[in-house]
Amino acid sequence: MAQFIKSISIALQNIRANPLHTFLSTLGIIIGVAAMVGILALGDGLEKTARDQVESTTDIENLMVSSVRYQTLDEIRVPIENPAKLTLTNAFELENQFQDRAIIEMYSRRSASAFFNDSTSALFLEAHMDRAVEFMTDSLSSGRLIERKDLINAENVAVLTQPLAENLQVKEVGETIKIEDREFEVIGIYSSGDAAPKAFIPITAYWNSNGAEYYPGLIMKVKNIEEIDGIKDELNTWFDNNFEKGRSGFTISTNQMRVEQFSQGILIFKLVMGAITGISVLVGGIGVMNVLLISVTERTKEIGIRKATGAKKKDIVLQFMAESVTISFVGCILGWLIGIIGIFTFVPIVNAYTDIGEFQAAVGGGTVVAILVIALFVGVLFGTYPAWRAAQLTPVDAIRHE
User: What is the 3-state secondary structure (H, E, C) of 241-297?
Assistant: First the structure.
């Protein structure tokens, strides 16, 4: 270890002795690493921005569960006897199991009619738990949403969308409307971009009214898209352990194709851009080899004296390999600094000329590890031949070298 540290010290002395020569020879590494830092940081930032855009405009992160209620026999679709049915207890259990990875929402929906004073309107009656707000993109114009207490007590409360409130001429919260033959207190009016008239009620109140013939579905909003496959497998195992029909009693639907396309697109981007920047790193590695070959020529006599005084081939190899890694590491550090400065200059320009939201570059620990691996790889790969050439010199020929 002491010898290795001494070799690094000698390498730093050589760099200080010929700073311009070393800088020009490692310019390829500096440019390549700077570009790679930019690609990794901007790639991660692009992936995060793309995720935010996709998640805000699509349901790519949603996983839907529904009971299998029909089967096909002789090309005829017939009902299944006693199909598996999810309960609110099941939903709470899954909520606890996946609380750090997904948001659970149970729902049922059907068409219905509503009455208020002299006004009548058809509507879509949607029953939910208290997590529906996590799946909504708009906001309330007044009142509140359904809460856990409403769910547990099966309260007859409803949140109306603006179109339904206008159809029924409901002006404020606190009014009582009748949905079919039951009265519901309006606790909120929802400013939805959807023009359809809808009423949201607790799923327990829905079951108490006309739920016996309806089978609730389950939506899971997964926080990390890459975990969808794993969560789907865990759900299937959970069904096997908690239902007589197991996983065959339920259908789990995902937008898996879109998830795979999304992930593959980001991966291809990183690989292609990484390959392009890798060319600069390889060119820089050739520069390092050039520096070391010149160093071997300039220090031939020094090598001969060292070998004559007892230095072994491995000692000479270790010295030049240490120099190679040190030069590569210095080039990588300079490239990393230039890359960091470059991306923090580039990101504000992107935000100023686009309207995709707050685009940010992500510089994580993975980038630092990648830089260290590159330095070690280039140093070892392109330092091997000069080190071997130096070790092959015989003491007599080396000392006589002019």
Answer: HHCCCHHHHEEEEECHHHHHHHHHHHHHHHHHHHHHHHHHHHHHHHHHHHHHHHHHH
| Residue partners of 271: CB distance under 8 A and separation at least 6 | none
Written as six digits, the tokens of 86 are 């999810």
3-state DSSP call for residue 98?
coil
How far is 298 from 329, CA to CA, in rounded Å? Answer: 23
Neighbours of 370 (CB within 10 A): 18
Tens of pLDDT along 30-65?
777 787 777 777 777 776 666 666 666 556 778 889
Q: Are strands 62-67 and 217-222 parallel, antiparallel or unpaired?
A: antiparallel
CB under 8 A, 24+ apart: contacts of 98-101:
98/220, 98/231, 98/234, 100/223, 101/222, 101/223, 101/224, 101/227, 101/231
What whole-number distance in Å separates Cα of residue 168 and Cα of residue 171? 9
Q: Are the C-beta atoms of 334 and 22 separated by less than 8 Å? A: no
Contact status, residue 91 vs residue 170, Cβ threshold 8 Å: no
**273-316 per-position pLDDT tens digit:** 767 767 766 776 776 677 666 666 666 666 667 667 776 777 77
User: Which of helix, strand or coil describes residue 80?
Assistant: coil
312 is written with which tokens?
């072994």
Q: How far apart are alpha carbons 323 and 292 in whole angstroms? A: 8
- Who contacts 26 (Cβ-Cβ below 8 Å, separation ≥6)? 284, 287, 288, 291, 327, 328, 330, 331, 334
SS3 call for 198: strand
174: left (phi over 0), alpha (psi -120 to 50) or beta: left
End-to-end CA gap in the chain: 33
Q: What is the maximum alpha-carbon separation in the chain?
A: 114
Percent of the chain with pLDDT over 90: 7
Residue 349 has pLDDT above 70, yes or no: yes
What's the chain's Rg over C-alpha atoms? 34
> Amino acid identity of 278?
G
d(CA 187, CA 157) in angstroms, rounded, equals: 6
Instruction: Give burial (CB, 10 Å; 0-12/13-18/19+) of 57.
Output: exposed
For the chain, the residue count is 402
174: three-class secondary structure by DSSP: coil
For the chain, give percent helix, strand, coil, nearest 5: 60, 20, 20
- Say whether pTM exceeds 0.90: no
